[in-house]
Design brief:
It is built from five helices and 17 strands. The chain is an alpha+beta fold and 252 residues long. The strands form seven sheets. The protein has a three-stranded antiparallel sheet with strand order 5-4-9, with helices on one face. Strands 10-15-16 form a three-stranded antiparallel sheet, with no helix packed on it. The two termini are 21 Å apart.
Length: 252
Amino acid sequence: MVDAEGRVTGASSPPGTADRLAAAAQCVAATMRYEPATLDGEPVAGKVSLDVGFPSPPTPSQEVRRAIEYCQPAIDHLATLSGAYEGQLDLLVRVGKDGRVVETVLPEGVLPWMQEAAKCLAERLSFFPARLKMVAVESWTVVPIDFNLTSNPHERVRLDAPTVRSDDAQIIAAYRKCYPPDRDDEQVINYRITVTNGGRVRKAEVVRSSGDEVLDQAGHCILRNLIFVPARRNGKNVESTLTWPILVRPPV
C-alpha cells in the first residue's frame, strides 16, 4: 500500500507464505520508493503487487574458523593494550556466481586490526554460490566472525554480547514515550550503539536510516530508554559497541 507521496504505508504477503520469507519480502517492499498512483492527473493512495524472489543463500565452502586463524599474522603488528585480538562482528559479504568474495562491508566503528583481518578473510573465504531456480547468482550473505586471537595461544577469552533487559511493559513504555504523534508508519532502522558496563546506551548513531529524520530520532529515543544486560568479558561487565536493528512503529 502506497500513499499519495509514494511512501509505503503497509505490506502483506499471500496466505501460506512461510513467516521468514513473508517478513523478508515485506521488508523489500517497505524499503523501496514508488511513484504514486494518479487519478485525473492527481497523486492518490493505491496498491501495487511485487514478485520477490529470494535465492538460497551462499554458504562457506570451508571452515570459517580456520580462515580466521590463518589471518592472525596479518594483525600481529597491531598491538592492543591487553595483547589480545578479540571481538565479534557480522561481516557482510557479496559473493559472486563463482563463489569468490566480490566485496565485504564492515560495520562502522570497528577497530583497525579488525579491518586488517577482514581484508585477509576476503582473500581466504570461498563459498558455494547462491542459487535461484538452480542457477548460480550473485548474492549477499552475513558471516558472523568471532575474533579470539590472543598473543597467548593457550588463552581463551569468552565474550558475551549485550541483550535487552527491559521487559515488555518497559519496551512498550519507551515506544509510547518516543514514537511521534499523528504517525502510523514503521521502519527498520540500524544503529551503531555503545552499551555501558551498566547496561545503558551511551551513544547511538544511525547506520542505515529510514530516510525520515523523525523516525530516526524516535528510534534513538527508544534505545536511550531501554536497559540492557551489558557485554561480559570472562564474566566481567564491559562497555561494548555493536550494530543494533530496531523496528520503529506505533506503540501497541
